């Protein structure tokens, strides 16, 4: 009972001190203090919400057999998991890049989605594009020529998608399988793709507007198509998912998903 009385007295003393301080402090300073007390948590809450909505998704797309799943495993485990079969559904996971394992705990994980290249499974891509921070388009640099047209068609569809164009999503074209001596160089692949996409553009703009599924037309009318004319930034790199030569891919990922 005595202890309770002691506490009540102490509380009254504190209240008196606060009242005294309020009377002595100018009104403007009081408003500032109240403002800081109420607005700081609000601003902190907004900052954390903004940070959370920043995407950490990287999408791997490209024709079937180009090596997306091999690259996915190489990024995650540092090994190609030889013998991967044609993927039947998207392969996704949030992880630390294998090469960054020593920094574990301090860096942000990356959400990587590998979308199968089979034409019937490609529509899965639309589900992931609105949350993509960067898109990696994988090309088989060995079997490039026989697949040049199909590659250009798929890439054209991607580069014309409103969900990528409006947010100016960076697209990295990866010429994979450079461990093979017969692999074409990235400069050769870039030029061939530009030529093929130029032809595609001519045929696609000839179709009536109602038939065009793409929201944007690529390039500059009247000029030969080049990737530099695209609304998005398009760059080209070389890699080998088999031997783990993926430094340029990792650099691209970390450019768009800050560690
Ligand atoms: N030489 C060589 N072979 C590779 C490389 N990357 C993948 N491959 C081989 O290419 C084949 C196809 O690789 P996947 O990773 O399954 O291809 P994908 O793009 O996932 O194919 P889908 O799932 O059908 O869309 C496999 O036999 C791989 O072992 C590479 O860098 N070099
Ligand atoms: Mg696959």
UniProtKB/TrEMBL annotation:
Membrane topology: Single-pass membrane protein
Matching Pfam families: SRPRB (PF09439)
UniProtKB keywords: Endoplasmic reticulum, ER-Golgi transport, GTP-binding, Lipoprotein, Membrane, Myristate, Nucleotide-binding, Receptor, Transmembrane, Transmembrane helix, Transport
Main location per the UniProt record: endoplasmic reticulum
One annotated GO molecular function: GTP binding
One Gene Ontology term from the biological process aspect of the record: vesicle-mediated transport
Matching SUPFAM superfamilies: P-loop containing nucleoside triphosphate hydrolases
Compartments it resides in: Endoplasmic reticulum membrane
InterPro entries cross-referenced by the UniProt entry: P-loop_NTPase, Small_GTP-bd, Small_GTPase_ARF, SRP_receptor_beta_su
Positions of transmembrane segments: 30-50
GO CC terms: endoplasmic reticulum membrane
PANTHER family: ADP RIBOSYLATION FACTOR-RELATED (PTHR11711)
Family per similarity comment: Belongs to the small GTPase superfamily. Arf family. Belongs to the SRP receptor beta subunit family.
Protein name, as recorded: Signal recognition particle receptor subunit beta
Organism, as annotated: Protea cynaroides
Upper taxonomic lineage: Eukaryota, Viridiplantae, Streptophyta, Embryophyta, Tracheophyta
């Amino acid at each position: 009972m005595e202890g309770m009385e002691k506490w009540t007295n102490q509380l009254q003393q504190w209240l008196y001190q606060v009242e005294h301080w309020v009377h002595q402090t100018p009104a403007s300073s009081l408003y500032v203090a109240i403002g800081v007390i109420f607005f700081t948590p609000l601003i902190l809450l907004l900052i954390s919400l903004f940070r959370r909505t920043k995407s950490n998704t990287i999408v791997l797309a490209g024709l079937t057999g180009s090596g997306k799943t091999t690259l996915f495993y190489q990024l995650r485990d540092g090994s190609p998991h030889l013998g991967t079969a044609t993927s039947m559904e998207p392969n996704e996971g949030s992880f630390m890049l294998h090469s960054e394992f020593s920094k574990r705990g301090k860096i942000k994980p990356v959400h990587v989605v590998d979308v199968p290249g089979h034409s019937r499974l490609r529509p899965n891509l639309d589900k992931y594009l609105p949350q993509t921070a960067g898109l990696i388009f994988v090309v088989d640099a060995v079997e490039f020529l026989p697949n040049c047209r199909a590659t250009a068609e798929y890439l054209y569809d991607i580069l014309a998608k409103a969900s990528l164009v409006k947010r100016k999503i960076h697209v990295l074209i990866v010429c994979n399988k450079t461990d093979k001596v017969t692999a074409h160089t990235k400069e050769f692949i870039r030029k061939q793709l530009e030529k093929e996409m130029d032809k595609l553009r001519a045929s696609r703009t000839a179709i009536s507007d109602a038939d065009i599924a793409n929201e944007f037309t690529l390039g500059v009318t009247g000029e030969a198509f080049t990737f530099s004319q695209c609304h998005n930034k398009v760059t080209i790199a070389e890699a080998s998912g088999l031997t783990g030569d993926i430094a340029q891919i990792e650099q691209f990922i970390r450019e768009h998903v800050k560690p």
